[in-house]
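Methods — Computational structure assignment.
A single polypeptide chain was analysed. Its primary sequence is given first, followed by the predicted tertiary structure written as structure tokens.
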Amino acid sequence: MSGRTARERLAHAAFQLFDERGYEGTTVDEIAERAGVGRTTFFRHYRTKEDVIFPDHERLLDRIAGRLATSRTDTALTAVSEAVRLVLLHYVDEGEVARRRYRLTSSVPALRDREIASVARYQRLFKEFLARWTGDAPGAALRAELMAACLVSAHNHVLRRWLRGEAADPMAEVDTALREVLGLFSGQAGEGETHVVAFTSRHPLDHLLPALRRLATTGPPPGHRTQKEEDQA
């Protein structure tokens, strides 16, 4: 374990012992002893045995918040996408440590509960950012809540695939997943927004405009037939 920091030696020792003795069967003193440090050194780096397992969420959340804070209204969705990628990249950079954590959290209920609580913090951060971006228009709060949940779900889907060894290129997969999510929320015209439609017709524009205005506001009338249907009649 030469060349590693005390924090890294403690994490490495902890995972070794968890594999050998199980999470519940391992004590802080045993972790410190295996790492070649004292009990005081352990608590200088970690508050509890659980903290050894999880990434430094506080620091990661600060990075995410910092990235979101640099965005403008017209770059908000880009900032959100990059923030999600930062989280995934952190796990990918951990490599085998992330996979060992995944195995532990999948088998120890207390650890799984803590992981769920951590995920909720990221979702809340995204929701608060998106709520500021969407403003106070009707339905904006719900839209921000839904977008945040979808972003986190997309990230977690790709992360779990990578952790199980099913994703050879997780960063490419998360980009695809994010496009799917943003596609769900784009192109939905609300009040005051305009749809532009391109078409050809034999009729003069002045003749078409009143009908187009009625169609945009109320939709087609009952029994209405399209131009193609008219031509085939």
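Note: The chain has a mean pLDDT of 84.
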